[in-house]
Amino acid sequence: MNIADLHIHSFFSDGDLSPADIVEESISKNISYISITDHDNLTGYKKANSIIKKSKYNQIKLIPGIELSSSINDSSVHLLAYFFDPENKDLNSVLKILQLRRTEFAKFALEKLNEEDVNISWGDIVKNSKGSIGRLHIAYALINLGYVRNTNDAFETYLHKIKSLYKNPYEISANELIEVIRKAGGVCSLAHPHTVSNFDKSISGLSENGLVGLEIIEDKKIKDCEEIMSKFGLTKTAGSDFHRNGKKSYLGKNFLNEEELLNFYNISRNKLNGEISWNM
Ligand SMILES: [Zn+2]
Ligand SMILES: [Zn+2]
Fold first, then answer.
1. SS3 (DSSP) at 178
2. Alpha helices in 13-73 (DSSP H)
3. What is the mean pLDDT of residues 258-277?
4. Assigned architecture for domain 106-165
5. Ligand 1 centroid to 55 CA: how many Å?
6. Residues of the chain above pLDDT 70, percent
7. Domain ranges in the chain?
8. In this predicted structure, what is the pLDDT of residue 221?
9. How far is the CA of 7 from the centre of ligand 1 (A)?
10. Is 199 exposed, middle or buried, given 0-12, 13-18 or 19+ CB atoms closer than 10 A?
11. Is the pTM above the cut of 0.90?
12. What are the CA-CA distances from residue 129 to residues 5, 38, 125, 144 (Å)?
């Protein structure tokens, strides 16, 4: 069976593996379609794309993808975008703003940690990041410096609190992002819906503004998801949200079969009146 894993992170956001490792491991697991959906940046996608082209791999197809940080009605949401043109100018300008937001947040966190007498520097944080800087990279720095034992500890002791204090001046609404992706020839799906607070209100707002998919995670299915999908005309997307190998985390853990992928693609193409940027 041909399967598609549409939610994968590389070490260009908060994953452990390089794009090359992800491509090779996916091929060895017979995954036919992958999407590297790093947070707010396309570096992992671009590297994987050139690896696949250079090596002339024909057993795997890479779908342009990204996971965008955003919010709707003051609830934070992650949008998974697919099939867009990665070179689109407006999209790339928006990604620069989202990157700036990540750097600004990390600087804010550094300031707060220093205020709490944590002796941590900017260099300690950035040396853990190859692309999109995030809370995980701050957590790694706190572990390396001996302030916490593990990442859970880092989030519980410091990072959740710091995040709640941060007011983001660079917020781009989910509806604006859906529009940017649409103009770049792509569509959006709502990532890990079980983590969205205010779900009912959020999903209706996003659907009105062109959301196409809802990510379905088999062991974390939200209540009434079939009804919700049919009510708002949404289609299923799926992926492992892979960051690193572990007992419960591996490539291909959640997936679309080929028929489901084709269905998602055709619905997306229709929504875009044929102006989809990627060809199946
Ligand atoms: Zn996410
Ligand atoms: Zn993710």
1. helix
2. 19-28, 43-54
3. 97
4. Orthogonal Bundle (1.10)
5. 30
6. 100
7. 106-165
8. 86
9. 9
10. middle
11. yes
12. 24, 13, 7, 14
